[in-house]
């Protein structure tokens, strides 16, 4: 097949005798470029592929164009054949676009646009032609021919809209938008000349009542904006500002919710959930286009349009409102949504429009959709409100009162807005901190879980900025009710639903821990720690009761971990009780979350921290050794695949231990069993625990050289002692490590772990090149018979020894590449054996400590 060079003439001649065979010829011509460039039924080198592409496509392009012209001119029906359009589209990748534009085929394509038989295919074909002219400087002649013909299509916009032909309008919009996108540079340079095209795209957006076609224009408006905001196109920006102004008006119209045919205001889409979801997504895309318009027009002009829309509605319909019955509410909700979408564009120093808008917002009628939109707007502009405190009270009251609504949507929106108000206006709300607690306590139980967290985020932000002297009292005021609810939930949590509710409630306490972090001088009592000391026994009791339920263990540990992170060395008074609970919890539950907290403690109370006495550091390291011993006993009883998450958490802990306590960990008696456990953990196939284990091994191996992964410089004598220990461990256990790393890279590791695996091998070659070379040879000999020839193995080892003997650091790194290539090749050729790894199986881990 590689030698068949006259494919085109042979096939055409064989099929050209019968008019009925024309469809076959067209189909053959359509698929030929696809098969040559994308089909891979036959394996070809890059050179062979380039050669075949030239012979089959490039050398035949002129002949194909002539064939298509002859066919198109053979009859009126032929010129309107959808297959013809598809064939032209396919060959546009191979034929210079100028050849099509300067041929009768251009008339065929444009005539096809208005023909019912092939309008969709012709529109697609013309779109490809237009994209090929995207380099406007190279395509000046082509654009000069295409532009008047594109503009001649504009009258069809109204005709298709009047006929309610949504598919035809969408196809035409795609053509016009594609032309505008392709020539956007030319439009920015010469807006007057190309204004008819811009106006045509705008008209498509205007007349698209079904909202099916307008999204085809969004990319053009964005691309044009990208040029118009540049200084060099300032004059073009002035000329086209009117277009973007009209676009905003069109957007405000299209943003309106539909009026239901059934008249049922509670189901605006008459049960069509797919259409409802599509409309939601569409509105957010429209919001992006509004931002583009705002960048071109300026914030004030854009906001003024929104203000005018709201004022017009107020003037027409405000007097007709009766409770929740609001006439033409869609016309009011749309500018509210637009105002929310524009929030990112508005600076907090805006002084012209927002002072007029904000008083209107709190007067919006209590219709569900309107109230939801208003709440979201107020929450979006809290930074502006913080800079204009005179507007805070009515807005905040509006949000607080919204919690009385029966609508879950409104309550969720109000909770999110409270979070933003309290976060951005926390200093302004300091005077209401006690009233805020009463509100918090009243609404908390009515909220869904996510909203509880959002409101808690907000109120805790206000508590956080109060004077340090008030911190203890305010934490007690806010959190004592939370703790009481916690105990009640713990007592009643008899099923999974109740236990999950308890776990979720623990998160609220954690949020206060994260946010309320008073600044106190060293040696002074931290008032937050004083309060959490009182809560610790309750959290410990809850933990004791639910050690068999992972979510509760994780949430309690998360809370304690954030205590360590938030209050750091000020947590010293709580460490003893907390460490005991962590040790008991891990010993009983074997949950990795207890190791999270251990790791945080290890980091914050390491030897190089200020204000940490040696006795505390020693006690913490002893606590770490106890947790390590518990893990090693667990590994003695269970396979790594039975506790991958715990393996992950343990080796993350060890990475911290190596970083902060190398002088204690590496010479200790636990090092060898830890190393053996790490090698055994390499039998896992999950990415996260493998990555943690390999990172630990790479850090450990770095201590055998002169650039250890330490948080501080070690004394020379200590560093030398540690290097000796590392090399001693490798001398006795290096073969097992090499075997498991190579087995993983060849068979079991996920692809994301290859780099770390080869990094371990590189580090071994740097420390012990001769021994590591021998271990690699031994491992290759263990491969199942028939999977790797002796010649290939010998060739690999010869190359490795050549690189090692050169003494060049670059050649040493090349050994890593050789091993990666070798393991990748092996992996491609061989499937993982179903009956185990044979001699490559890991030795079962054993620990007697």
TrEMBL record:
Keywords associated with the record: tRNA processing
InterPro entries: ARM-like, ARM-type_fold, Exportin-1/Importin-b-like, Importin_beta-like_NTR, TPR_TNPO3_IPO13_2nd, TPR_TNPO3_IPO13_3rd, TPR_TNPO3_IPO13_4th
PANTHER family, per the entry: MRNA TRANSPORT REGULATOR MTR10, TRANSPORTIN 3 AND IMPORTIN 13
Any one Gene Ontology cellular component term annotated for this protein: cytoplasm
Record flagged with keyword tRNA processing: yes
All copies of domain Exportin-1/Importin-beta-like, residue ranges: 2-126
Protein name: Putative Exportin 1-like protein
GO biological process, one term: tRNA processing
Pfam families xref list: TPR_TNPO3_IPO13_2nd, TPR_TNPO3_IPO13_3rd, TPR_TNPO3_IPO13_4th, Xpo1
Keyword Transmembrane: no
Biological function: tRNA nucleus export receptor which facilitates tRNA translocation across the nuclear pore complex. Involved in pre-tRNA splicing, probably by affecting the interaction of pre-tRNA with splicing endonuclease.
């Amino acid at each position: 097949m590689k030698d068949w060079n006259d494919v085109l003439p042979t096939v055409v001649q064989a099929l050209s005798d019968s008019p009925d065979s024309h469809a076959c010829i067209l189909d053959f011509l359509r698929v030929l470029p696809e098969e040559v460039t994308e089909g891979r039924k036959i394996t070809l080198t890059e050179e062979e592929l380039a050669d075949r592409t030239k012979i089959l496509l490039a050398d035949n392009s002129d002949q194909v164009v002539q064939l298509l012209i002859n066919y198109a001119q053979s009859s009126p029906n032929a010129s309107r054949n959808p297959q013809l359009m598809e064939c032209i589209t396919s060959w546009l990748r191979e034929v210079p676009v100028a050849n099509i534009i300067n041929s009768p085929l251009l008339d065929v394509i444009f005539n096809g646009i208005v023909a019912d038989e092939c309008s969709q295919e012709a529109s697609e074909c013309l779109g490809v032609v237009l994209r090929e002219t995207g380099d406007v400087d190279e395509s000046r002649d082509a654009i000069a021919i295409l532009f008047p013909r594109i503009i001649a299509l504009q009258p069809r916009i109204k005709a298709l809209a009047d006929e309610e032909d949504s598919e035809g309008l969408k196809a035409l919009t795609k053509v016009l938008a594609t032309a505008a996108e392709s020539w956007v540079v030319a439009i920015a340079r010469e807006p007057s000349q190309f204004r008819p095209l811009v106006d045509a795209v705008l008209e498509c957006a205007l007349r698209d009542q079904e909202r099916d076609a307008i999204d085809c224009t969004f990319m053009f408006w964005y691309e044009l904006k990208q040029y118009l905001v540049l200084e060099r196109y300032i004059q073009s920006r002035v000329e086209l500002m009117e277009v973007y102004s009209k676009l905003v008006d069109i957007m405000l119209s299209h943003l309106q919710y539909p009026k239901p045919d059934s008249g049922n205001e509670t189901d605006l889409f008459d049960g069509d959930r797919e259409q409802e979801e599509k409309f939601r997504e569409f509105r957010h895309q429209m919001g992006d286009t509004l931002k583009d318009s705002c960048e071109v027009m300026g914030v004030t002009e854009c906001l003024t349009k929104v203000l005018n829309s709201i004022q017009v509605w107020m003037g027409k319909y405000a007097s007709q409102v009766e409770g929740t019955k609001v006439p033409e509410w869609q016309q009011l909700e749309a500018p509210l949504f637009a105002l929310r979408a524009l929030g990112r564009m508005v600076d907090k120093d805006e002084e012209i429009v927002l002072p007029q808008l904000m008083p209107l917002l709190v007067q919006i009628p209590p219709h569900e959709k309107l109230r939801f939109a208003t709440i979201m707007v107020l929450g979006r502009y809290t930074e502006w409100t913080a800079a204009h405190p005179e507007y805070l009270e009515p807005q905040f009251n509006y949000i607080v009162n919204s919690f009385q609504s029966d609508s879950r949507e409104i309550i969720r929106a109000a909770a999110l807005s409270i979070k933003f108000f309290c976060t951005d206006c926390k200093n302004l709300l300091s005077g209401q901190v006690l009233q805020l607690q009463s509100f918090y306590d009243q609404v908390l139980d009515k909220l869904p879980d996510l909203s509880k967290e959002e409101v808690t985020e907000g109120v805790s932000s206000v508590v956080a900025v109060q004077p340090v002297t008030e911190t203890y009292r305010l934490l007690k005021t806010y959190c004592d009710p939370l703790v009481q609810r916690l105990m009640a939930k713990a007592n009643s949590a008899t099923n999974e639903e109740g236990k999950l509710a308890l776990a979720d409630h623990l998160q609220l306490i954690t949020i206060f821990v994260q946010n309320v972090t008073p600044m106190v001088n060293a040696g002074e009592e931290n008032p937050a720690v004083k309060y959490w000391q009182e809560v610790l026994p309750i959290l410990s009791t809850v933990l004791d009761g639910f050690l068999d339920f992972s979510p509760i263990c994780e949430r309690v540990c998360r809370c304690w971990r954030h205590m360590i992170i938030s209050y750091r060395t000020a947590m010293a008074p709580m460490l003893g009780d907390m460490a005991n609970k962590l040790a008991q919890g891990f010993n009983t539950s074997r949950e990795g979350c207890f190791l999270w907290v251990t790791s945080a403690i290890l980091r914050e109370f390491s030897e190089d921290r200020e204000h940490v006495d040696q006795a505390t550091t020693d006690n913490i390291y002893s606590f770490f050794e106890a947790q390590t011993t518990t893990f090693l006993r667990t590994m003695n009883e269970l396979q790594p695949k039975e506790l991958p998450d715990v393996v992950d958490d343990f080796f993350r802990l060890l990475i911290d231990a190596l970083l902060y306590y190398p002088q204690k960990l590496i010479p200790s008696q636990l090092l060898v069993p830890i190393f053996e456990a790490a090698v055994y953990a390499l039998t896992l196939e999950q990415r996260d625990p493998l990555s943690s284990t390999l990172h630990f091994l790479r850090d450990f191996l770095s201590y055998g050289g002169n650039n250890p992964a330490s948080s501080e410089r070690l004394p020379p004598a200590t560093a030398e002692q540690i290097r000796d220990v590392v090399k001693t461990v490798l001398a006795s256990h290096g073969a097992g490590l090499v075997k498991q790393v190579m087995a993983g890279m060849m068979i079991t590791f996920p692809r994301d772990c290859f780099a770390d695996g080869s990094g371990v091998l590189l580090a071994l070659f740097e420390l012990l090149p001769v021994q590591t070379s021998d271990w690699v040879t031994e491992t290759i000999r263990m491969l199942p018979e028939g999977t790797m020839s002796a010649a290939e193995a010998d060739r690999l080892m010869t190359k490795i020894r050549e690189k090692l003997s050169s003494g060049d650091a670059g050649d040493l790194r090349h050994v890593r590449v050789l091993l990666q290539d070798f393991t990748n090749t092996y992996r491609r050729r061989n499937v993982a054996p179903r009956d185990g790894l044979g001699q490559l199986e890991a030795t079962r881990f054993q620990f007697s400590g």
